[in-house]
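Protein folds are increasingly written down as discrete tokens. With that in mind, we are printing a sequence and the tokens encoding its fold.
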Amino acid sequence: MASISIPLAYKSHSLSCSSSYRLHFTTPQLHSPIQIKCSASKEGSDNEENSCQFKQLRNVACGFLAVWAVANSVSPVIAAGQRLPPLSTDPDRCARAFVGNTIGQANGVYDKPLDLRFCDYTNEKNNLKGKSLAAALMSGAKFDGADMTEVIMSKAYAVGASFKGTDFSNAVLDRVNFEKANLQGASFKNTVLSGSTFNDAQLEDADFEDTIIGYIDLQKICLNKTINEEGRVNLGCR
């Protein structure tokens, strides 16, 4: 538990007396359930009006501190709680990529979840083209050499997946998490890369000819040192 003690000084304008107070505020440690406790100690006059004014000051100060506690304590809990669901037991889950999702492409909404984790689509040339893979779970999957032209991948989770030599030409890769993915030699010709992240991704020899990308996203991807000189020129990295 962390404890904060804040002195509050109050001087009454209607009474010829002044009082000082100390507000004690206790906050939880990281990952503990949120528990806010306020207590107060008072020095000085103890008349009824002064006590009433103090209660108002205490409530206001406690409210501000409660907001501070939520802002500083909830975020890590939420982040820690964003865990992936258990691996699907559907025996046909990998084959469902060949059908894809049918609704909500832009917002990653789907009629049935696509759990493609650890599936192997190496050199798949026919069945992934133009599919909607909205919010697909792809971590640990292999798409090396696959033809994924014109696919729609909105909010897909592809952390640690392998896309070596994958053709993403004319695809829409919207808010895809490619963290630590292997994208060596992948083609992003005329591909929309909106809001996608490539932290620690391998992008050696990736083709970014005519890639459509926003300025902020460009700044982020240009920080990746694995992009070769030609790729940086095509992207417009400075």
User: Anything to note?
Assistant: The radius of gyration is 28 Å. The CA atoms of residues 116 and 138 lie 5 Å apart.
